[in-house]
Design brief:
CATH superfamily of the largest domain: Bira Bifunctional Protein, Domain 2
Radius of gyration: 27 Å
CATH architecture of the largest domain: 2-Layer Sandwich
CATH topology of the largest domain: BirA Bifunctional Protein, domain 2
Oligomer: single chain
Shape: elongated
Bound molecules: histidyl-adenosine monophosphate
Number of domains: 2
Number of helices: 17
Largest sheet: 8 strands, mixed
Strand content: 15-25%
Helix content: 25-40%
Number of strands: 16
């Protein structure tokens, strides 16, 4: 049997419905925040990521899928969205021909050659935003609030927002010096990777998964003690705005993040649900004021986040959140003879074009088996065609729940179904900013049905 590659998933059935639902919530939320969708290539010239994410980052040194294309060019499957979006911002001169800041969001597959485990895949899906062209601390806070609000809209309760500041270049460099002085006498107590990190990028030692419980790391100097006045003030502002946006957070001075491009604000949002395991960071991001320049553009600031969709869905499952997913069809059309089947084809087509969700019999089963199939598909109404009725310009419609059956004139069908299914229009939920089916539970959605 041919199997899927390690660390990849087939998503189908009920699971796929959850993904689709979460994607709808993401799209609707991004629309409210006025972010525009961007789609960049799944592979880019290697330098986009190698330069962008930092040649010494774990992702670039160990995890990228690098390959030569048939024209001998160095290419890399995207391990994240930020560097590609920034490349596109520069290449398409969005800094000159679009209102600033440019607010972009994406949702797509990324590729990292990691050791697969729960919550850590080789093909992963991230949704995220990049806001380019503003250095205002309010943007840092707003960007943090977006995933928090998406998680809350979906019903997640057990989340924790960790924030920190790495400060500007001067603060970062001072901190770097302090770390070198601190770790130098203890270098042999660190893991092999960290000994290398000490030389190339000592900040990264704090992000080490192997040494994370080593007291040496826990007692290391804090970034916050090395922030210059400007960076300190900036961080205070971010915290004020988070308060204004009602985002609960914890300052974690050990948070440095694994990618090179960050400065000032960095953050991670963790799921605190039993059974999640160690890969519990649902979303993360921060400010990257030097990245546009590093990739060949003008000196323009940016901030963003990305969130793993797989981990998010795992958190929803572990918190036992039932998403309001409708696994049903509105109408199932039954036909046996050739003429009935022929008529069914036309009818089903016209009902679908009128906006109904319709399925029909495809396997020439007898009527009894078609009733069973309708039940399996959770059909609400059955249209039962037979040659005699059709000769009289009639058909039968059966409510599959009450089992009530009526014979209708063909002209009357649309009117009848419209009336029968009028309360079932779930799309209106999205325009009301409510994602719950009936809003009777504790979803923290912003609809006010329960107060009415
Ligand atoms: P990151 O921390 O590498 O940041 O990834 C963001 C999120 O993607 C993680 O918090 C996690 O939910 C998910 N993720 C990462 N790797 C995996 C994996 N192997 N399997 C499953 N999920 C994973 C970034 O990618 C930055 N580009 C975020 C950003 C955007 N910073 C600024 N703008």
């Amino acid at each position: 049997m041919i199997t899927k590659p390690k660390g990849c998933h087939d998503i189908y059935g009920q699971e796929a419905k959850k993904w689709q639902y979460v994607n709808k919530v993401i799209d609707a939320t991004m629309e409210k925040y006025n972010y525009s969708y961007i789609r960049t290539p799944i592979f880019e010239s290697s330098e986009v990521f190698h330069r962008g994410m930092g040649a010494t980052s774990d992702v670039v040194t160990k995890e990228t899928y690098d390959f030569k294309d048939r024209g001998d060019r160095d290419m890399t499957l995207r391990p994240e969205g930020t560097a590609g979006v920034v490349r596109s911002y520069i290449e398409n001169k969005m800094y000159g021909n679009m209102p600033q800041p440019v607010k972009l969001y994406y949702n797509g597959t990324m590729y990292r050659y990691e050791r697969p485990q729960s919550g850590r895949d080789r093909e992963l899906t991230q949704f995220g935003v990049e806001l380019l062209g503003s250095d205002d601390p309010i943007t840092d806070a707003e960007v943090i609030s977006i995933p928090v609000n998406i998680y809350k809209l979906l019903g997640l309760k057990e989340i924790k927002v960790n924030i920190n500041s790495l400060g500007d270049d001067e603060s970062r460099n001072n901190y770097r010096e302090a770390l070198i002085a601190y770790f130098k006498p203890h270098i042999h107590e660190l893991c092999e990777d960290c000994q290398e990190r000490f030389v190339k990028n000592p900040l990264r030692i704090l992000d080490c998964k192997v040494d994370k419980d080593n007291p040496l790391l826990q007692n290391a100097p804090s970034t916050l003690d090395y922030l210059n006045e400007e960076s300190k003030l900036r961080f205070e502002k971010v915290k004020e705005y988070l308060l204004a946006l009602e985002v609960d957070y914890v300052v974690n001075p050990k948070l440095v993040r694994g990618l090179d491009y960050y400065n000032h604000t960095v953050f991670e949002i963790e799921a605190h649900v039993e059974g999640f395991g160690s890969n519990n960071v649902l979303g993360a991001g921060g400010r990257y004021n030097g990245l546009v320049e590093l990739l060949g553009g003008p000196s323009i600031s940016g901030v963003g986040f990305a969130s793993g969709l797989g981990r998010l869905i795992m958190a929803l499952d572990l918190e036992n959140i039932n998403l309001p997913i409708k696994d049903e069809v509105e109408i199932f059309c039954m036909a046996v003879s050739d003429t009935e089947k022929n008529y069914a084809a036309t009818l089903v087509q016209s009902l679908r074009m009128s906006g109904f969700k319709v399925d029909m019999e495809y396997n020439n089963r007898g009527l009894k088996a078609q009733f069973r199939q309708a039940d399996r598909l959770n059909a609400k109404y059955l249209i039962i065609l037979n040659d005699q009725d059709l000769a009289n310009n009639e058909l039968k419609v059966k409510n599959n729940k009450t089992k009530e059956e009526v014979t209708l004139g063909l002209d009357y069908l649309l009117y009848y179904l419209d009336e029968a299914l009028i309360d079932e229009d779930d799309d209106s939920a999205f325009t009301d900013n409510c994602y719950a089916d009936d809003c009777q539970d504790d979803h923290e959605c912003s609809c006010h049905h329960d107060q009415e």
